[in-house]
Write a structure and sequence with these properties.
This protein has 3 helices and 9 strands. With 137 residues, the protein is α+β, with helices and mostly antiparallel strands. A 9-stranded antiparallel beta sheet has the order 1-7-8-9-2-3-4-5-6.
């Protein structure tokens, strides 16, 4: 009887390990995750390098942002919440014509922010991407 009990316990343990392994095998490591406020604070530039690094946005911990579309300065406010919620306002800007990367629009149109590796992805209410930013170095 003890041998049968040990065998059943051993099989149950083996089955538990196999099932746990199945769960691990299906997990997607490193995929996009909701951005936290701490993730957002910093200086960002377009991921595709538009405007040669002159276009940027800097989000501070106090909920304000400053930036440039490549030649026009702009600023506004921002906030984040649970489940990747994001909201930003855009303030006044100059109107010099240049490459005009619409970073202020990316922020204002976004309702969600997620982090994918070192990339900040902004999305609107439909889930469509409004902008993709990487850390400005």
């Amino acid at each position: 009887m003890n041998l049968l009990r040990l065998s059943l316990l051993g099989l149950a343990g083996l089955l538990a390990l196999l099932l746990a392994g199945v769960g691990i095998a299906h997990a997607e490591p490193g995929g996009p995750r909701p951005a936290t406020g701490a993730d957002l604070v910093g200086s960002w530039m377009p991921a595709d390098g538009q405007a040669g690094g002159r276009a940027f946005v800097a989000l501070d911990a106090g909920g304000r942002w400053t930036g440039s579309d490549g030649c026009n300065n702009t600023k506004g406010t921002w906030r984040s919440g649970s489940d990747a919620e994001f909201a930003a306002t855009s303030g006044p800007t100059t109107r010099i014509g240049c490459e005009n990367v619409p970073i202020a629009g990316w922020l204002a149109d976004a309702t969600h922010a997620e982090v994918d590796g070192d990339t900040l992805v902004l999305r609107d209410a439909t889930g469509a991407e409004t902008g993709r930013l990487v850390p400005r170095r």
